[in-house]
Specification:
Shape: globular
Order of helices and strands: HHHH
Oligomer: single chain
Largest sheet: none
Number of strands: 0
Distance between the termini: 11 Å
Strand content: under 5%
Structural class: mainly alpha
Number of domains: 1
Length: about 120
């Protein structure tokens, strides 16, 4: 593979993860302060939902940025964005689902392509 391919993989990882962190960091800070999310879309409890969303939107993007276990770390984000697009915004018009779908397919591409050579895992 060419070096531009690996730079492209890095940019894909970095930009999608950095944008996801803008959603995840506030949720992480709320969790630390004891504030839980208001919804429980899949019926596992508000605390469990909040913890899983924080893992998917804050912890996993950090791992993806550095390129550690990138494919594995993409899975929780993909699941969370699938729930956001198809359950939380299921009855909404496409304009309301758009952001979740963009994240879903961006992280799906990351999961399929892997981290590339500019990562901790370097393959």
């Amino acid at each position: 593979m060419t070096s531009t391919y690996h730079i492209g993989l890095f940019l894909l990882r970095f930009t999608f993860s950095a944008m996801m962190l803008s959603h995840g960091i506030p949720k992480l800070l709320n969790l630390i302060q004891g504030t839980l999310m208001k919804s429980d879309p899949i019926g596992i409890g508000v605390l469990a939902t909040t913890i899983l969303v924080v893992i998917a939107e804050a912890i996993c993007p950090m791992l993806i940025i550095i390129g550690y276990k990138t494919r594995l770390a993409s899975i929780p984000v993909i699941i969370t964005m699938g729930v956001a697009a198809f359950i939380i915004h299921g009855a909404d018009p496409i304009s309301m689902k758009e952001k979740a779908l963009l994240f879903l397919f961006g992280f799906l591409a990351i999961a399929l392509l892997g981290a590339g050579k500019h990562s901790v895992d370097r393959k």
